[in-house]
Design brief:
Elements lengths: L3 H13 L6 H16 L3 E5 L2 H14 L3 H6 L9 E5 L10 H7 L3 E5 L7 H8 L4 E7 L11 H10 L4 E4 L7 H5 L5 E5 L10 E5 L1 H9 L12 H15 L3 H19 L5 E7 L7 E7 L8 H10 L7 E3 L4 E4 L6 H17 L14
Parallel strand pairs: 2-3, 2-4, 4-5, 5-6
Antiparallel strand pairs: 1-7, 6-7, 8-9, 9-11, 10-11
């Protein structure tokens, strides 16, 4: 979707392509703007949130020591064990454990897939070679939620830094910082709508230590001038955004979509609060097989195979689809509704499911 926001950011990026910059000056401006918006001490732009995790882990091991920075990913002479709750070991194209290992650290997985208690974290943190605690705020997280403030406190009791990967949580940065985390990592290309980039936000010493990794493994993860300028433009747009009006618009989209689905046999639609606390709701579509509607997986495949292709989130444990409507225009919303309605009608024709919507 192209809107006035993306056009404004795009123009800034386009102009940056023809100019020369001092990257340190751009990063300093980013730090001032983000500090003003969030109350953080400092901030910096990195290539992406995944890179931010690796750099944060590297900074916890090497700090700003030039010889240690140059040694990574060989961390044999450094504290190099990183605690992460088992329920936070997510996969977003690769495992988050890969981000930890890229820095030369060893992940220490605490608890179980569906639960990580304070006692589990205490046990994992008891190893004095542990370098830092890494936490995640993501819709991919499974099981019982981990109390982030409590986890950060446990890390700090052992004088260990605590980092929160809040990739899609750019609207909740002050809340995540309030946990006491030393760094909060967010994506800039998601709801902030900048070019692909990550923001590391938090204590000045930690941000500076992450920047220091540019003299080592961070050189391969540096942010481009176009990305930094684009992030600055996106931050400017965000400061002028009426959040209350924006949230009301997202609510209207969800309510309208749920109402349209009420006439589609075989689908039970409802509003679902964002599981990570983001400032908008999603649409939850539960497939009712008693009505001979295709399975959720088959319906998702049919939507992807159509023209235009529609990609949706699946929650197969409940035979459900989860739809996020934030980036969709009114026209796009209508097209998605029409496509689902059409597939619903097809599933009832001649008392059988079309081949493209076969049961799995």
């Amino acid at each position: 979707m192209i809107n006035s926001h993306s056009l404004g950011v795009g123009r800034s990026v386009s102009e940056a392509l023809t100019q020369f910059f001092l990257i340190d000056e751009l990063q300093s401006e980013i730090s001032k703007v983000v500090a003003h918006m969030t109350g953080a001490e400092a901030a910096a732009v990195v290539h992406c949130t995944s890179a931010g995790i690796t750099l944060a882990v590297a900074s916890a091991m090497a700090g700003d020591n030039p010889s240690k920075i140059a040694s990574l990913p060989d961390s044999s002479d450094m504290p190099n064990r990183v605690v992460i709750p088992a329920c936070h070991v997510v996969n977003y194209g690769h495992s988050i454990l890969t981000d930890i290992r890229l820095a030369g650290a060893t992940p220490v997985v605490a608890g179980r897939d569906k639960s990580c208690t304070a006692y589990d974290l205490q046990d994992a943190l008891a190893d004095t070679r542990t370098a830092c605690l890494l936490l995640v705020s993501s819709r991919l997280v499974q099981g019982n939620p981990v109390d982030l403030s409590e986890a950060v406190t446990l890390a700090h009791k052992r004088n260990l830094p605590a980092f929160i990967d809040g990739a899609a949580q750019d609207m909740r940065i002050p809340e995540l910082l309030a946990t006491g985390a030393d760094l909060v990592l967010v994506s800039a290309q998601k709801y902030l709508a900048s070019p692909t980039a990550g923001l590391i936000i938090g204590r000045r010493a930690c941000v500076q230590a992450c920047r220091a990794q540019e003299q080592g493994i961070g050189r391969a993860m540096k942010a481009t001038k176009e990305a930094i300028v684009g992030v600055l433009a996106a931050l400017d747009e965000r400061q002028r955004l009426d959040i209350t009006a924006w949230r009301a618009e997202q609510d209207r989209k969800v309510h309208w979509f749920v109402k349209q689905m009420s006439g589609v046999a075989g689908i039970k639609a409802s509003e679902m609060p964002d599981p990570t606390g983001a400032l908008f709701s999603r649409v939850h579509l539960r497939i009712e097989p008693v009505h001979r509607f295709p399975t959720a997986s088959a319906l998702a495949q049919a939507l992807r195979s159509g023209n235009p292709s529609v990609w949706v989130g699946e929650h197969t444990a409940e035979n459900s689809l989860i739809l996020e409507l934030v980036p969709l225009s009114r026209e796009e919303l209508h097209r998605v509704v029409e496509r689902i309605s059409e597939l619903g009608r097809q599933s009832h024709q001649v008392g059988q499911t079309p081949a493209t919507l076969h049961r799995e």
